[in-house]
Amino acid sequence: xxxxxxxxxxxxxxxxxxxxxxxxxxxxxxxxxxxxxxxxxxxxxxxxxxxxxxxxxxxxxxxxxxxxxxxxxxxxxxxxxxxxxxxxxxxxxxxxxxxxxxxxxxxxxxxxxxxxxxxxxxxxxxxxxxxxxxxxxxxxxxxxxxxxxxxxxxxxxxxxxxxxxxxxxxxxxxxxxxxxxxxxxxxxxxxxxxxxxxxxxxxxxxxxxxxxxxxxxxxxxxxxxxxxxxxxxxxxxxxxxxxxxxxxxxxxxxxxxxxxxxxxxxxxxxxxxxxxxxxxxxxxxxxxxxxxxxxxxxxxxxxxxxxxxxxxxxxxxxxxxxxxxxxxxxxxxxxxxxxxxxxxxxxxxxxxxxxxxxxxxxxxxxxxxxxxxxxxxxxxxxxxxxxxxxxxxxxxxxxxxxxxxxxxxxxxxxxxxxxxxxxxxxxxxxxxxxxxxxxxxxxxxxxxxxxxxxxxxxxxxxxxxxxxxxxxxxxxxxxxxxxxxxxxxxxxxxxxxxxxxxxxxxxxxxxxxxxxxxxxxxxxxxxxxxxxxxxxxxxxxxxxxxxxxxxxxxxxxxxxxxxxxxxxxxxxxxxxxxxxxxxxxxxxxxxxxxxxxxxxxxxxxxxxxxxxxxxxxxxxxxxxxxxxxxxxxxxxxxxxxxxxxxxxxxxxxxxxxxxxxxxxxxxxxxxxxxxxxxxxxxxxxxxxxx
Length: 690
What we know:
mainly beta; Immunoglobulin-like; Cadherin-like_sf; 1 helix; 6-stranded mixed sheet
């Protein structure tokens, strides 16, 4: 209050609470402070203000000079909705005077800072499946600490699709049945409920609800099938099981009982509940002559509701005979090349009963993949190709079973022998054969042996060997038909045919026969059966006197058709001198020589006497392989000859006669004198130039 004008000061106070997200929030309060003038002047008129009481928790502060009242700590509407403050006004005089009669009331206004809270979570409830629509199932409730619209709640169901059987009262939170329930379809529902206040902005929370639907007996038992049938032999023992009927009840914990309602003539049958089904058993002996069929009506009941089914029991005549095979063991043969589906044999059995008791079904006791048996006819047929080479026989256990009650049977054994056919060609043990033989071996010498096998049996697997249709080396070889030994038929000559490429055959004796060829290579080995051959038997040589040592006076060549060491040629030179009067002089050693390996005759020094000079060294060669050539050496003048021999005589024409052999160790053979067959030619006209 202004002390001069008497005006009243009005304050607007804002209150802020300590709420959590999305807070904090605030409110405002109006504070009026009235101060009476003490009519003093100066310092006596200066008024100071202070809060005396009511400022619990220190929420407010007042300015001492101006009297302005402020909120200094957050306010909470839900804790304190109103504050009453006592204000002291004190002047500055001495002694100071004060007044504490001033009261300030601060009202805290609510803001929406509290979300709804459900009183219990999760909510659980049960409801019978047959309750009417609108039935109240459970009351879900939430509270909100705020006030006014901030605490007014609206309830909704979350994420419920079409056909959801529950609804909620938006204001009260009561959940009610909105559509018919069926426990057999859905026995439990779980969903969410949301509570939202009407503040601005609104706040919400949710809770889970589980509603369990309880069963009521609203379903009748139902048989799994309406009609049953059974066949029972008249000699069936009392207590024998006929069949089991079965019914189901969709209700929970239902107990089904069974009884025979009608058709149980002479009370032949009884029924008991076992494992949820009704087991029909024979209570009294049957008589095929009195009743051949029973039509039973069976009732299944859960105590309130029931269902019925019909059971037809056909009584059959007693199966007094079993099937009988004509033999306990059968043996048949089948060729291995028969196609798949071939009927091997038809096995049959007989039964002296009639009707179903005599109708026989055939089956194989063991699964043999190569064969099957027709159940009605007993025909055994092939399912796979047979192979004698893999398996030669099969033993099948075949059972003939009648269709009586109880079934009777007989078993026989069928042995199937697979007959071999010539379906395999002989096979050689090698892809090709190689051998060798010396050319000088006698006829019928063994060279090599070929060998083949045949997977077939008997004549189909019996093999003989032949060159027929192949190559026998133009008749130089034969092959033994049983052993496969290849032999020479005549003497061979390597120099004519060094290598034979033969083709032999292994042929079985099946019909038709199968044959397999093989290549045979025979190498003919050399023996020293050919002597060297000079290019001519006689040579004329003219040599000038005073020819230098080492002069080549002739080239003497020879060839040998053998090979290897047998074809290496070795030569010697044997020289003798004879005059016209048949006087013989032997040249001294070294007068005439042979250059090694060249086949050339040359002067080795002054002619003095006869000599032997080796040309090529090597192994000894049989004497039968020797060949000799005669060489005629003509001297141009007697003076030259006399100079060589130191003999005085008339001028004559002499011939050097000497032999060239192809072996070192050969005894020289004497050469007979020869007269000149023609006049001496000029020494410069040599027929064999060096």
